[in-house]
Amino acid sequence: MDKYELFREHLRESAKEFRKIDKNGAVRVVSHLDCDGICACSILIKLLTSENRRYSISIVQQLSEEVLEELSKEDYNTFIFTDLGSAYFNSIKKLFHNKNFFILDHHEIEDKQASPYHINPNLFGIDGGKEISGAGVVYLFCSSLDKNIDMAHIAVIGAIGDVQEENGFQRLNRDILDIAVSGKKIEVKKGLRIFGAQTKPIHKVLEYCSDPYIPGVTGSESGVIQFLDQVGINPKTEKGWRKLIHLTEDEMKKLVTAIILKRSAEKNPEDVLGNVYTLIEEDKECPLRDAKEFSTLLNSCGRLNKASLGIGVCLNEEKSKRKAINNLNEYKKEIVKALKWHTENKDSDCIFKEKGLMIINAKDNIMPSMIGTIASILSRSNNIEEGTYIMSLARTEENTVKVSLRIASMSNIEDVDLRQIITEIIKKVGCGDSGGHPQAAGAIIPSEKEEEFIKIAKNMLRKNIM
User: Fold this and answer.
1) Which residue of 10, 97, 195, 208 has the fewest CB atoms within a 10 Å radius of its CB?
2) How do residues 354-406 score in pLDDT, each as one tens digit?
3) For residue 446, is the peptide bond before it cis, meaning its omega torsion is within 30 degrees of 0?
4) Which fold has domain 345-464?
5) What is the mean pLDDT of the chain?
6) Where do the DSSP E strands lie in 61-182?
7) What is the rounded distance in angstroms from the CA atom of residue 71 to the CA atom of residue 59?
8) Which residues of 93-110 are buried (b: 16+ CB within 10 A; e: fewer)?
9) Which class would CATH give 3-184?
């Protein structure tokens, strides 16, 4: 058997263990607050509901020894961790030794112990950072228990939310996508790889398009209007502003050609084209119609502490959808507010800058759940040199500091492991918890260690500047 067959066999063995658990007992579900974590939790909830099992959910920003200790004291006999837990396998095994537990995760792990209660593709040499999301792992697990579980499209959303789509998917994600397509949940077409096609006016989509960057257009409202005029596309009709989905086939061809020509000096001018994933059961011009916008909406729910709305959206609850779309507007306001603070304080002591390095200490000025989002946005900015490390920090109500680490867009990002870097910083500080992926990592540290952490981080990041 190859590694994929071994992984699927492991999933079947784990499913057999789960079937042994008494259905009368409630299941405690713990998941991550990002898009992938919400998708993973939702798929599991669909299964538990279909089996008439009772459950209780907690969505957390990050696991820690303290969180696990508190959970272990709760009066539940079965715990399931989704999109997190692998980094704490030994702690979970120790604290929950007299309980049933399952870890369904895809993050990298140091201690690769095989166990029917630990389901992680990395245990079988499969790259969980690229080939399958946390939601994908949960979907395969649930499919081993119920072949009719109709949630492959949600697993695809989780993978897109975890940035695993790059001109298509790799093996396991691709298998799940094929199920979603054959089930008529998702349609895949080649098109403009631009965010907001379903919901934003054409001129705004182009003005705010940073990935891919369009010279003379991105960031310039007047540049956009002039560009569209040259192409021969009227951005407005009597009914109002037009969106990308309103363009005729001929207009779209003209627009694509013009954008590629504008990008002729870029390394890959044609990478404006890519796969567009459409949720065909969702209404047109709705944020849930486009898979990337769907994933952003779920992220907004988690980041603003309304993960239950995101779960409701994944479970196709109309009331939750309406509320989540309103919540998305609040999320955008928080992003604007955070970016405004960053701009106003770029020359203050809160923001340290030197070649190849930027450290943003937002303290109490940005929500801790938003600090990673801001670091990600800045990492895609054309104003920051490629390869620059971006570390952001924000204080929590629990007397801790949330840390996020990103790197500004670079072609050889495969050579960088941010998770390893932040883990090494934590080790030098002597306390705290780290996690994430090679391209997007984070940590939680005690507030009293903030200054020491920043000092050590500066020194270690300087050594890693390429």
Assistant:
1) 97
2) 999 999 999 999 999 999 999 988 888 777 888 999 999 999 998 999 999 99
3) no
4) Diaminopimelate Epimerase; Chain A, domain 1 (3.10.310)
5) 92
6) 78-82, 100-104, 118-119
7) 12
8) eebbeeebbbbbbbbbbe
9) alpha beta
